[in-house]
Amino acid sequence: MKKGKYLFEKEPLRKHKNLTNDEIYEVKEFLEKRKLESNKPLPQRLVVNIKCKSPHQKELINSIKDNEITICYGPPGTGKTYLSCAQALKLMKGKNHIDKIYLVKSVTTLRNEEIGFLKGTMDDKMAPFMFSFINNFEKLIGKGLTRALKENGYIEYLPIAYMRGINIDNAVIIIDEAQNISIQNLKTIMTRLGENSRMVFLGDMKQKDIKNKKDSALEFLFEQFSNINKIGVVSFTLDDVVRNPLIKDIEEVFDRVEEKSKKESQPKDQPSQERSKTPLKYRWLRLKSSVQKLFR
After folding, report:
1. Are 255 and 207 in contact (CB under 8 A)?
2. Rounded to an integer, what distance in angstroms lies between the CA atom of residue 190 and that of residue 211?
């Protein structure tokens, strides 16, 4: 192996200019420890172990494996993104002819938390939005291997704005925060699915940052595509939270506050509300009848 040229012998990879010495050492140690041949493609050298902690997590893994499209929704901390990234790596490592993992996420920011114009390349602009993806890959296979996969094109960011007109074959496409994608953009995303590809939609219906809440793609996906063959639907609950037990309590508090707020915002004068539902035609006839009685 020529020091400083390529990380992997007999493999035409790009130079790893951005890898630190520690990350280079991490990748070299990974290869030497398992005594793997350096002429194997990088994804086949990965070791990905998935340990499911709930029946719904196992259901998600099986759905990604068996279905062309998987729709998964539920509260934060249930392992939706982590498991999707893990299964995508396993599919790329296995004999499924999966060549690439595409990461898709809406660039919608939290309310009143816009960070303004971002300089740099497209990857630089997308990096803040894709941090959750990369963080999960780093937990699974380490920083060095994650960066190696990214720099050699095995993992790629795919902005929704540039998806129209392309066909995605032999890939896993993971779409996170689907609740912040519009229904119109959803159509664009779904119709990119090519041969031997998997598409995974992830999200939480309670965390909508999209301006028009009714235009959220996640609920539309669940309502319209649940009963279609080769499309799997997995629903997580608060009982599936594995990140931190406190998250379950936090979610329950916010649910109570939201429910209370909805009740307080409802109109107290129910009779007037019922009258407003009466068709205009009948309201006019009633008014006409009342006026005629007055002049009798």
Report:
1. no
2. 22
Angstrom CA distances, 154 to 25, 26, 111, 151, 157, stand at 20, 19, 33, 8, 10
Place of tokens 């959220």: 216
Q: Domain holding 237: CATH number?
A: 3.40.50.300
Q: What is the pTM of this model?
A: 0.73
Q: Does residue 225 fall inside a structural domain?
A: yes
First-to-final CA distance of the chain: 107
pLDDT mean over 111-130: 71
Strands (DSSP E) found in the chain? 69-73, 100-105, 155-157, 171-176, 198-203, 231-235
Q: What contacts 273, CB < 8 A, 6 or more positions away?
A: 267
Residue 285 in any domain: the answer is no
What DSSP designation does 7 have?
A: S
Residue 103: which domain range?
43-241
* Nearest alpha carbon to residue 46 among 79, 85, 77, 76: 85
d(CA 169, CA 283): 59
Query: Alpha-carbon distance 67 to 214, whole Å?
Result: 27
Does 241 have pLDDT greater than 80?
yes
Per-residue pLDDT of 80-109, as tens digits, reads 999 999 999 999 998 888 999 999 998 765
Tally the domains of the chain: 1
